[in-house]
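Final report, section 2: Outcomes. Of the targets proposed, HTH luxR-type domain-containing protein is the one most frequently requested by collaborating groups, and we therefore present its record in full.
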Amino acid sequence: MGMQEEAETAALAFEHAPVGLALTRDRVIERCNARFCETFGYGADELAGRSLAALYPSAEEFQRIGEIGRQKMLDTGRYADERIMQRRDGGLFWCRVRGQSLTPEDPFTRAIWSFADISESRPVVDLTVRERQVAAFLAEGRTNKEIARLLNLSPRTAEAHRARLQAKLGARNATELVARLTGLPV
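The predicted structure is given below as tokens.
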């Protein structure tokens, strides 16, 4: 296979990947594939040059997740999580996100990201920003004390958020709540 053919094959693989892919520079989309556009509800030409911030439920979450991701990518060059993202029409959905820095010394300078819509196995309920933050940490297996420390809350406040999440998701206990948050069968 010649270099031209390899380049064409790579371009086809990127464009037709079964998950959304985006090549970013400083958290701005340079290029994305058809599945990425479909997932977020945009046309093919609408996302190039736009900040990833447009795909988050809030500017605060874009900032917070960015800080967490930058630190993790400085350590390993990679980042992965499951979080709530926002479609063009404002609809929220759970998304599995994976990132690889192409510039490890400054992780967001150039990076490649995959975005997979996992909303079929994990429905979204109406949550506040803080409840989404607590939910994400619970899905990671964090304790109430760890969540309180990470979010600069009292342990009682973290527990209150967890209790509200349990009620909103119809979970009888913490184990069932985590199962609902992670999409595992209950």
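The first helix runs from residue 3 to 15.
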